[in-house]
Amino acid sequence: MREAAFAKQNKDKWLRFENVLRNNVAMDPDELSALYIEVTDHLSYARTFYPKSNTLRYLNGLSILAHQKIYKTKRESRRRFITFYTQEFPLLFSQYHKQLLITFLVFMLFAVVGAYSSATDGDFVRLILGDGYVNMTLDNIERGDPMAVYKDMNEMNMFLGITINNIRVALLAFAYGLILGLGTLYIIMRNAIMLGSFQYFFYDQGLLWESARTIWIHGTIEISVIIIAGTAGLVLGNSILFPKTYTRLQSFVRGAKNGLKILLSTIPFFIIAGFLEGFVTRHTEMPDVLAILIIGGSLSLIVFYYIIYPIYLKRNHARSHTL
Fold it and tell me: Do residues 208 and 115 make contact, with C-beta atoms less than 8 angstroms apart?
């Protein structure tokens, strides 16, 4: 759609919204909120298709003007929790797939670095995983139960401990984005090297399949959402480095809010991963087919929710603006 046609189609809504804001015209808070969401949708559309245009500058100013007034009076819907996870977040995340790809590639690169370093330096695994863990695992291997570490703790305690620790790591990955994204990349690098070293250690013991079919029962979701949390950190860092049409402060506030939303999206998945690690991974006697089904289902869930579904919503959203 041409810029002129887009402006003509939506001009009345914009002027009405501006009149409400500038003249303090009374309006139902929910109706005002809905109008604000529509205007910000138009802003996103203009940012994509009409960069550096007068339309973009106008909508950007209108959105900034509206923000505080709306959120002082908005009455949250009871369905807010559901719509956040089913509509608001996936649509938001669709614009950050580039950052997701960068985080994923960095993670994969350093996982390979961890495995390669372990293969070429006999002491590297101990340096990364610690002597205590390596010695304990070697003892478990000698006893014929290499994955015994997942059976030592009570199920509920393990579930809670792992879940809390993973959320802590995710918070760090996000918060370290304040260091221009470099802190986030460090967290991702450290976890990736640890994973690569861990997997090579079991490969070196002739137990690659045994370890993979066990740890990836919970690790598929756990590692994936750590990468997602890293994406949130990059969003925060990029908002400082690349403010685009916003002032740097406005960009930072926007990046912090969007990054926090990305981080919030990971919490249910961390709970699922913690549950799997606490209650399911310990059953190393389960058939390979069942383990593969759990791993495959977990991977499918992550790919669908964070990649396929956001793209689907974005296309539908864009189509609705061109009709």
Answer: no
Counting other chains too, the contacts that 220-223 makes at CB distance below 8 Å and 24 or more residues apart are 220/295, 220/298, 220/299, 220/302, 221/269, 221/270, 221/272, 221/273, 221/276, 221/298, 221/301, 221/302, 222/166, 222/270, 222/273, 222/277, 223/107, 223/191, 223/195
pTM (2 decimals)?
A: 0.77
The range of the structural domain enclosing residue 218 comes to 92-322
Residues in the chain: 323
**Is residue 87 situated within a structural domain?**
no
74, HSE (Cβ side, Cα atoms, 13 Å): 16
Q: How many domains does the chain have?
A: 2
| Residue 291 domain flag | yes
Residue 83 maps to a domain? no
Q: Where are the alpha helices (DSSP H) in 74-154?
A: 80-83, 89-93, 97-120, 124-129, 131-142
What is the Cα–Cα distance from 90 to 166, expressed in whole angstroms? 22
3-state secondary structure of 61: helix
Question: Would the pLDDT of 75 be above 60?
Answer: no
Q: Spell out the residues 6+ positions from residue 320 whose beta carbon is closer than 8 angstroms to its own.
A: none
Specify the pLDDT at position 98: 96
